[in-house]
Amino acid sequence: MQGELILTGRAAECAARLLLAENGAVRAALPGAFLRRAKSALTPQADRREELSALAGKCGLLGAYGCGKGGILAALWYLAEELDTGLCANLAAVPIAQEVIELFEAAGEDPYRADSSGCTLFAVQNGAAFAAGAEKLGVPASRIGFLTDEKPRTLRMRGHIRYLDNPRLISRERD
User: Fold this and answer.
1) Do the beta carbons of residue 5 and residue 106 sit within 8 Å?
2) 15 backbone dihedrals φ, ψ, rounded to 5°
3) Which domains does the chain have, with CATH numbers?
4) What does the mean pLDDT of the chain come to?
5) Cα–Cα distance between 59 and 128 in angstroms, integer?
6) Does position 173 have pLDDT exceeding 70, yes or no?
7) Which of 75, 97, 126, 167 could make an S-S bridge to 121, C-beta 3.0–4.6 Å?
């Protein structure tokens, strides 16, 4: 199956807001100026699911999966399962704020497995048109990969390649 993977929204921001609000150890480990900057950068986006679904239909929708508690990595797995296909995703292309990465580093957690509620992963035939249309709606959209005819589900990041893990096997749950 051929198609492009487009992620709408910004990864791990839902979980990052919770870290800021509830994790005193993270707040204590980071400078106040950084925390203020992170808090202002983590404003929730408007809900545009209906408009995005209609747009995806016009761009050759193959499938979609709402990101949640298992994060971007779980969404990739479940979408590939739903479509019975393989995929190749570039983690460096995932839209994630530097502040979010630093918050998760301070907490010792993986932002790609963190709650990304508000993000949706789309598989579409015309990714460029879909991403451009989403941006016109004010929704960040990035091409993060593509579907493959083979079964492997691979992740790439700065020259390294690894296989995507089944989220059920690493104690992550679908929301």
Assistant:
1) no
2) -65, -35
3) 4-12+48-94+112-170 (3.90.650.10)
4) 91
5) 9
6) no
7) 75
Q: Are 11 and 94 in contact (CB under 8 A)?
A: yes
Task: Compute the distance between CA of residue 28 and CA of residue 26 in angstroms, rounded to an integer.
Answer: 5
**Tokens for 150?**
């083979």
- Phi, psi torsion values for 112, nearest 5 degrees: -75, -15
Residue 113's pLDDT band (boundaries 50, 70, 90)?
A: very high
How deeply is 21 buried, as exposed, middle or buried, from its count of CB atoms within 10 A (0-12, 13-18, 19+)?
exposed
With 0-12 / 13-18 / 19 or more C-beta atoms within 10 angstroms meaning exposed / middle / buried, residue 31 is exposed
- CA 86 vs. chain centroid, Å, equals 17
The SS3 of residue 120 is strand
Tokens coding 70: 């298992």
Q: Where are the beta strands (DSSP E) in 25-165?
A: 61-66, 86-90, 120-124, 141-148, 153-157, 160-163
User: Whole-prediction pTM value?
Assistant: 0.89
Nearest to 7 by CA among 85, 118, 160, 114: 118
Least confident of 4-13, 34-43, 85-94, 102-111: 34-43
